[in-house]
C-alpha cells in the first residue's frame, strides 16, 4: 500500500462540509468482538472503546476533497470538488467491522439477564423466608411479639443498605467490553448462587417439610441470610475495587510508530483489566497519532534500499528449486546476496545524514517563522473585539454580537497564517475550519488570551482533545502470549494493536522497599573551622 | 653544605622511586619517594631550642589550602617558611619540602600537633629529617640518563 493513498483517505476528514455530516456520522466500533480471524495470533482478542455505535454507514461515502489554498479567505458559501473514493485503509476497516459486529450483542444481554435474575433471587429470598410460613401454615405458628418485630425492622434496613450498596457497586455504566469474562465477578456470582441455594435447601428440608412452628427462629434465619449477603458484598468490594489500588507493577507503554513512551503504576490486575487502564490513560496522556509525521523516515528507508542492486556476474543460478541440497544452494545464494548488500551499504559513502541535518534545520527555521507570524496575527485579531459590559449592553444595542458571530468576524484575519502554520507542522488534517471557529468562540467567551487560544495548535495535544473522527485509535486488539485473565507478572509483555499503530506494554514489578530509620539529635549539629595553622619550630 | 645530589646514592639512605608520582599516595599501599636526608642541629636561644623553619599541614588540617602540595588531598607536613641563616637553611632545607620522617618517626600521617612535638623534643639536639621535593625526582632522572 503506498503512502499517498493512506493520507488521502485521512484528508476527507478535514472537509468543510463537516457540519452536515456531524450528526449523521457514526463510527465503526461495535460492542465486543471475538475475532476468530486466522491471521491473528492464538490469544488475540478485541477490546472495544465505548460507546457502542452501529456499523460504518454513511461515513464511508464522505467525499475526498481537494485542499483549497484559500479556504481561509472565504467565509460562507464554501464548495469543493467531492468524489466518492475510499482508500485502502477504509476497505480494511469496513471488512473488519462487518465481520466483528455480529453476535456479541447476545453475550452482553446474556450477562445482563443473568445478573438481574441473580439480584432478584437474592433480594426476594429473605422476604420469601419470612412470608412463606404465614402463607402455608398460619394457624400452627407461634405468635412472636416484640422480638420478631425488632427483627423485622433490622431485616428491612439491612435489605435497604444492601440494595443501595449493590446499586453503588454494580449498577454503573460499563466502561468497556472486555474479551474474556471478568474472573472475580464470575466467582462472586457463583459464590452468591451457591450460598442462596444452600440456604434454600436447608429451609426447604428443615422448615417447609417439617412445618416448624417457631417463627422467631425462622425470622432469625432470614436475618442471618441478610447478614451473610452483606458480608459477601464486603468481599466483592475488596476483590473488585480495593485490591488493585495498591501499586505493584510499573508498566512501560511505547507507541510503535513514533516511540512515545509513558510509565504507569498499576496494582495487581489481570492483563485485560491492565490493558483497559492503559488505554484509558492513553487517551489522556499520549499526543494524537499523526501519520503525516512519519513520511520522512519512510522515504529515507526507501532510498536506502533503492541504492544497491545485486548482479550475479558468474552466472551460477540454481537450476530448480528442488528439495534437499538444491534448496540449500538457493538459500545460500540469497544469504550471500543479502550479506553482500549489507557490506556494500556499510562501505559506501552515504550522505543522507547530511541531507537530514540540513532539512531538519531548515524545517525548524520555517516553523519558527510561521509561528511568529501566527502569533502576531492572532494577537492583532484579538484586539478587534472587546467584551461589552452589562450597562453598555442596555445603552447601545447596535452591532452587538454573540461569541460565535464575534469569532466568525475575526477569524478571516488570522486564518491564512494559521493554515500555513498547520501545514508546516503537518497538523492540517487534525483541525477543520469549523472546529477552529468553535474553539475561537469558546476562548472569547471565557476571556482567554491569544496565547491560550493558540496553545492547542502549537503543540499536539492528547487524543481526547480532538474530535472522535480524528483519533485513528478506536478499535483495540489485545495480543498476548499469556492468558488475558491471568495476572500481571514481572516481565509480562503484551501488545495493544490498533489499525495504524500498536502500543507495546512491558510490566516490571515495583521493588520491595526496605526503609530504615536514623535518629539525629538536633543538638548534635556542631561545626568547627577548617584550620591551616603554621607552627614555627 | 652538602648538595642534594650527593645524597642520592641508591641503596644506602635513599629510596629511589621509579614511579612518576612522588607526592601522591594510594591508601593502604606503601609510599615511595625520592628523599633527601637533612640533619639539623638545633640552636639554643634562651631556653628554647629552635630549628628555624615553620611547618604546616597534618591530618587534622585542610589540605586544600596548602600552596606547596601537588595533590590537594595530601595531608602531609610541609615546610612553609625557612628563616634565613637559621639552622634549617644551613642544613639545606628548602621551602615547600614535604617532611617524610623525623628521627625515624613517620610524618606522613600525623596531626599538626604531633608533628610539632616530634620536632621539638627537648632532649634531642639533632633532628634527622627525610624530606622530599619535586626537583629531587627530576634530578634522579637526569642523573640516570
Automatic annotation (TrEMBL), chain A:
TM ranges: 109-131, 151-170, 182-203, 218-240
Membrane topology: Multi-pass membrane protein
Keywords attached to this entry: Cell membrane, Membrane, Transmembrane, Transmembrane helix
Cell compartment(s), UniProt: Cell membrane
GO cellular component: plasma membrane
Residue stretches of biased makeup (Low complexity): 1-17
Keyword Protein transport part of the UniProt annotation: no
Matches recorded under PANTHER family: VANG-LIKE PROTEIN
Protein's name in the database: Vang-like protein
Protein source organism: Hucho hucho
Lineage, top ranks: Eukaryota, Metazoa, Chordata, Craniata, Vertebrata
TrEMBL record, chain B:
Chief location: membrane
The keyword Nucleus is annotated on this UniProt entry: yes
Membrane topology: Peripheral membrane protein
PROSITE patterns cross-referenced by the UniProt entry: PDZ
Protein keywords: Acetylation, Cell membrane, Cytoplasm, Membrane, Nucleus, Phosphoprotein, Wnt signaling pathway
Claim: Cell membrane is one of the keywords in the record: yes
Subcellular location: Cell membrane; Cytoplasm; Nucleus
UniProt-recorded name of the protein: Tax1-binding protein 3
Biological source species: Hucho hucho (huchen)
Amino acid at each position: 500500500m503506498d503512502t499517498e493513498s493512506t493520507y488521502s483517505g485521512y484528508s476527507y476528514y478535514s472537509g468543510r462540509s463537516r457540519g452536515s455530516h456531524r450528526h449523521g456520522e457514526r463510527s465503526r466500533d461495535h460492542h465486543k468482538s471475538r475475532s476468530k480471524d486466522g491471521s491473528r495470533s492464538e490469544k488475540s482478542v478485541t477490546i472495544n472503546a465505548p460507546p457502542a455505535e452501529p456499523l460504518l454507514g454513511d461515513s464511508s461515502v464522505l467525499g475526498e476533497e481537494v485542499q483549497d489554498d484559500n479556504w481561509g479567505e472565504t467565509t460562507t458559501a464554501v464548495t469543493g470538488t467531492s468524489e466518492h473514493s475510499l482508500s485502502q485503509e477504509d476497505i480494511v476497516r469496513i471488512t473488519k467491522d462487518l465481520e466483528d459486529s455480529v453476535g456479541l450483542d447476545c453475550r452482553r444481554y446474556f450477562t445482563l439477564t443473568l445478573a438481574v435474575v441473580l439480584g432478584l433471587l437474592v433480594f426476594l429470598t429473605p422476604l420469601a423466608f419470612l412470608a412463606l410460613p404465614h402463607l402455608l401454615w398460619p394457624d400452627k405458628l407461634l405468635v412472636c411479639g416484640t422480638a420478631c418485630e425488632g427483627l423485622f425492622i433490622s431485616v428491612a434496613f439491612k435489605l435497604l443498605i444492601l440494595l443501595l450498596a449493590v446499586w453503588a457497586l454494580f449498577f454503573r455504566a460499563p466502561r468497556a467490553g472486555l474479551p474474556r469474562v471478568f474472573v472475580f465477578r464470575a466467582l462472586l456470582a457463583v459464590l452468591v448462587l451457591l450460598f442462596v441455594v444452600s440456604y434454600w435447601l436447608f429451609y426447604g428440608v428443615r422448615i417447609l417439610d417439617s412445618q416448624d412452628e417457631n417463627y422467631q427462629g425462622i425470622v432469625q434465619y432470614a436475618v442471618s441470610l441478610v447478614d451473610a449477603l452483606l458480608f459477601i458484598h464486603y468481599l466483592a468490594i475488596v476483590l473488585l475495587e480495593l485490591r488493585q489500588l495498591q501499586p505493584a507493577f510499573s508498566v512501560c507503554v511505547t507507541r510503535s510508530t513514533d516511540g512515545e513512551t509513558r510509565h504507569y503504576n498499576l496494582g495487581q490486575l489481570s492483563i485485560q483489566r491492565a490493558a483497559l487502564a492503559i488505554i484509558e490513560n492513553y487517551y489522556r496522556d499520549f499526543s494524537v497519532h499523526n501519520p503525516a509525521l512519519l513520511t520522512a523516515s519512510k522515504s529515507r528507508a526507501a532510498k536506502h534500499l533503492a541504492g544497491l542492486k545485486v548482479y550475479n556476474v558468474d552466472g551460477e543460478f540454481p537450476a530448480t528449486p528442488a528439495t534437499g541440497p538444491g534448496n540449500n544452494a538457493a538459500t545460500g545464494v540469497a544469504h550471500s546476496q543479502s550479506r553482500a548488500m549489507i557490506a556494500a551499504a556499510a562501505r559506501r559513502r552515504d550522505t543522507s545524514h547530511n541531507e537530514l541535518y540540513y532539512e531538519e534545520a531548515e524545517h525548524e527555521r520555517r516553523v519558527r517563522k510561521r509561528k511568529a507570524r501566527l502569533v502576531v496575527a492572532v494577537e492583532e485579531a484579538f484586539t478587534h473585539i472587546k467584551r461589552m459590559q452589562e450597562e453598555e449592553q442596555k445603552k447601545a444595542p447596535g452591532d452587538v454580537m454573540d461569541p460565535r458571530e464575534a469569532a466568525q468576524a475575526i477569524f478571516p484575519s488570522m486564518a491564512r497564517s494559521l493554515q500555513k502554520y498547520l501545514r508546516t507542522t503537518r497538523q492540517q488534517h487534525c483541525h477543520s475550519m469549523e472546529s477552529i471557529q468553535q474553539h475561537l468562540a469558546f476562548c472569547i467567551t471565557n476571556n482567554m488570551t491569544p496565547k491560550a487560544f493558540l496553545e492547542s495548535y502549537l503543540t499536539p495535544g492528547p487524543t481526547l482533545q480532538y474530535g472522535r473522527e480524528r483519533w485513528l485509535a478506536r478499535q483495540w486488539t489485545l495480543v498476548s502470549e499469556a492468558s488475558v485473565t491471568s495476572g500481571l507478572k514481572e516481565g509480562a509483555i503484551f501488545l495493544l494493536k490498533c489499525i495504524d499503530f500498536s502500543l507495546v506494554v512491558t510490566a516490571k514489578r515495583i521493588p520491595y522497599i526496605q526503609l530504615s530509620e536514623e535518629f539525629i539529635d538536633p543538638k548534635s549539629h556542631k561545626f568547627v573551622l577548617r584550620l591551616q595553622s603554621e607552627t614555627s619550630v | 653544605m652538602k648538595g642534594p645530589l650527593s645524597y642520592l646514592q641508591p641503596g644506602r639512605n635513599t629510596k629511589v622511586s621509579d614511579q612518576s608520582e612522588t607526592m601522591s599516595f594510594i591508601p593502604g599501599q606503601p609510599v615511595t619517594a625520592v628523599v633527601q636526608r637533612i640533619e639539623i642541629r638545633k640552636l639554643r636561644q634562651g631556653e628554647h631550642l629552635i630549628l628555624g623553619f615553620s611547618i604546616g599541614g597534618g591530618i587534622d588540617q585542610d589540605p586544600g589550602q596548602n600552596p606547596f602540595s601537588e595533590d590537594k588531598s595530601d595531608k602531609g607536613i610541609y615546610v612553609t617558611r625557612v628563616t634565613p641563616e637559621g639552622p634549617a637553611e644551613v642544613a639545606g632545607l628548602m621551602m615547600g619540602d614535604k617532611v617524610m620522617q623525623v628521627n625515624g618517626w613517620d610524618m606522613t600521617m600525623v596531626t599538626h600537633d604531633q608533628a610539632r612535638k616530634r620536632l621539638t623534643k627537648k632532649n634531642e639536639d639533632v633532628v634527622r629529617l627525610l624530606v622530599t621535593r619535586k626537583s629531587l625526582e627530576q634530578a634522579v632522572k637526569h642523573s640516570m640518563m
